[in-house]
């Protein structure tokens, strides 16, 4: 496994995002999830990404169980915090107050069964709390040894600058894929100016770019994609047509659609680490195959023709969730 650098942190070229293992995409098999984490580590993946609100703590407990028989220091654990949940599983806003930051981390350390988190980041920017206060609280946790590095998630250019003025930021976690290229205009240049890496989630657009999606697919209970505009009605048909155009390019290179999409993200710079949201070992194996795909200039041009920038139909979240994105302001 080759390595890439996120700020002051060196990690594997690809990371594993564990969100889908805790109900966000509907039910998941816990034993298979743990086996997938183990398979990723065996393949050399050294970055595990989670959120304390994934499954209301279930995801952190799952990672703890997976690491019981492994060396915890083999991986860097990245944790997002701040999202508030209700007993029905709904979202109730975000809390970035310093006292809340320290409270969230206390529970995270207990659930993960570890004495430190490698990257700690607010899942969303709390508009009611200055980012300087939130980052300042994490900086105190770094000083105390509970956190190694500070990251951001879905932050816009001004917020990134303000946060970096308080404490070094290793990476910005943000959606980036062939169908989500908004960061290229302002956000990515600011990150590069400040030496901040990018952990790209949604590189397969929640499965849409996996090459396995059908317009007739029925989403299970609790799968938030049922509310996502890109997965509904005419938007879905339009987007699946883009996938089929990408499939032609991929098949010409004898790779899968997913591998072409991941290889494209990998080609965008060595300061970008794609997070693969595989829930099963077969999907993980397919995704890791992208590491062997070297896209030529002709390949990249063909991909751009198949899936032009801004060709996607529909926002990446519903209106309520889009309103929480500092990166979209």
Automatic annotation (TrEMBL):
Residues 13-306 form the NADP-dependent oxidoreductase domain. It comes from the Bacteria. One of its GO terms (cellular component) is cytoplasm. One of its GO terms (molecular function) is oxidoreductase activity. InterPro entries: Aldo-Keto_reductase, NAD(P)_OxRdtase_dom_sf, NADP_OxRdtase_dom. PANTHER family: AFLATOXIN B1 ALDEHYDE REDUCTASE, ALDO-KETO REDUCTASE YAKC [NADP(+)]. This is Pyridoxine 4-dehydrogenase. It comes from Actinoallomurus bryophytorum.
């Amino acid at each position: 496994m080759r390595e890439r650098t996120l700020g002051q942190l060196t990690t594997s070229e690809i990371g594993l995002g564990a969100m889908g293992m805790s109900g966000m995409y509907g039910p998941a098999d816990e034993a298979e999830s743990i086996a997938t984490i183990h398979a990723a580590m065996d393949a050399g993946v050294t970055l595990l990404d989670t959120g304390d609100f994934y499954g209301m703590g279930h995801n952190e407990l799952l990672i703890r169980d997976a690491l019981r028989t492994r060396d915890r220091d083999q991986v860097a654990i990245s944790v997002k915090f701040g999202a508030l949940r209700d007993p029905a599983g709904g979202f109730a806003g975000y809390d970035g107050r310093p006292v809340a930051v320290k409270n969230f981390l206390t529970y995270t350390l207990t659930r993960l069964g570890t004495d430190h988190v490698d990257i700690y980041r607010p899942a969303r920017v709390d508009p009611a709390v200055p980012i300087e206060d939130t980052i300042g609280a994490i900086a105190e946790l770094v000083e105390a040894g509970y956190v190694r590095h500070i990251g951001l998630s879905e932050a816009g250019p001004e917020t990134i600058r303000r946060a970096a003025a308080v404490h070094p930021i290793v990476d910005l976690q943000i959606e980036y894929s062939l169908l989500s290229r908004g960061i290229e205009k302002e956000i990515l240049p600011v990150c590069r100016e400040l030496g901040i890496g990018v952990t790209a989630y949604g590189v397969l657009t929640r499965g849409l770019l996996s090459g396995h999606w059908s317009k007739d697919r029925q989403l299970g209970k609790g799968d938030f994609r049922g509310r996502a505009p890109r997965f509904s009605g005419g938007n879905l048909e339009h987007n699946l047509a883009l996938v089929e155009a990408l499939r032609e390019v991929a098949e010409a290179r004898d790779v899968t659609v997913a591998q072409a999409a991941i290889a494209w993200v990998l080609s965008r710079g060595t300061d970008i680490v794609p997070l693969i949201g595989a829930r099963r070992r077969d999907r993980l194996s397919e995704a890791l195959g992208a590491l062997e795909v070297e896209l030529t200039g002709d390949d990249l041009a063909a991909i751009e023709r198949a899936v032009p920038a801004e060709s996607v139909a529909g926002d990446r979240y519903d209106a309520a969730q889009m309103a929480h994105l500092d990166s979209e302001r």
